[in-house]
Amino acid sequence: MDTRFLDSLIAVAEEGSIAGAARAQLITAAAVSQRIQALEREFKCKLFSRAGNTVQPTDACLTIIPKAKSLVREARDLIEIVQDSGLNGTLRIGANSTSLTAFIPATLKSIRASVPEAKFHITPGNSIDLYRSLINGDIDAAIMVMPPSAIPKSLRYWVLRDEPLALLHHKSIKGTLTDILDNKPYIRYDPSCWGGQMPELFMVEKGMTKNTIFDLDSLEAIAQLVSEEVGVSMVPIWAGLELFDETITTLPIPDKKYHRKMVLMSAYHPRQPRLLELFMKHLGELDSVDLQKDL
Which H or E run includes 63? Predict the structure, then answer.
């Protein structure tokens, strides 16, 4: 069985259409259709049903997909092992929204200047989804918020930043932390995400009241709204917040209990150890990173 056909099967299921899968795989829609038909003949079952301009996976298809993903991943790994000269292959790295702008461009630029043959694929996402992808083996490493639960022994991590919690407010606003939170509209760092759990814990434990107007899982968007005097917020001091120094006052909370840890996490035995080592070396050279040894 050609794993490229399985790759097309996965793409159709994820994109919801033959045309979408073709665009994602950079092949023709006819080629995708032929691959699906070949798989249906081999499996002796229908894999998709049409619903207007979209297709829906059948129950049989949904049963096949998890194993298909595993086979495609294992085939890709085998190719990279055979071709391995240390820096062959591609390192698949996940990055949350703040890391995507604060760390990834400078790190890739530095690597490109010294080791142009090294290849990386960057997957954006929130920390919860990236952690799941890392456990499933869909990515090789991720820059993300430290999970609140115990880390499986199959994974290892390096702390990149230990970020204090802080109150953000426009420079025109005066008063104590309590006064400001009691009297100003509050933009809440979404508590359903890991990073947003620390501000929420602080507010609850200190018995502070707030007039919440928005929930956002984007620190950049929160800072922009604070700078435009829409409201105030409690967030970690992330790499990039300094860009708003002209309009925003940052009041740090000294208690380390409420810090957010940013980590680089990977499999304990990575598929691309030399590429991971290279990426980590250049990442650790950034001024905004204080790389600590693996834990």
Answer: helix 59-82
Cα–Cα distance, 170 to 48 (Å, whole number): 54
CB 294 within 8 A of CB 156: yes
- Say if strands 165-170 and 248-252 run parallel, antiparallel, or are unpaired: antiparallel
| In contact, 56 and 49? CB cutoff 8 Å | yes
CA torsion 8-14-15-16 (nearest 10°) is 100
Helices (H) and strands (E) in the chain, counts: 11, 12
Q: Is residue 290 part of a domain?
A: no
Question: Residue 82 above 70 pLDDT?
Answer: no
Domain holding 102, by residue range, is 90-162+260-284
Same domain, 150 and 179: no
Q: In terms of domains, do 170 and 142 share one?
A: no
Looking at 82, 114, 148, which one is the last position of a domain?
82
Summary mean pLDDT of the chain: 90
How far apart CA 99 and CA 286 sit, in angstroms, is: 12
SS3 181: helix
What does the pLDDT look like over 8-44, one tens digit per residue?
999 999 999 999 988 888 889 899 999 999 999 999 9
Say whether 216 sits in a helix, a strand or coil.
strand
What are the distances in angstroms from CA 173 to CA 176, 216, 226, 234, 254?
A: 10, 22, 11, 15, 21
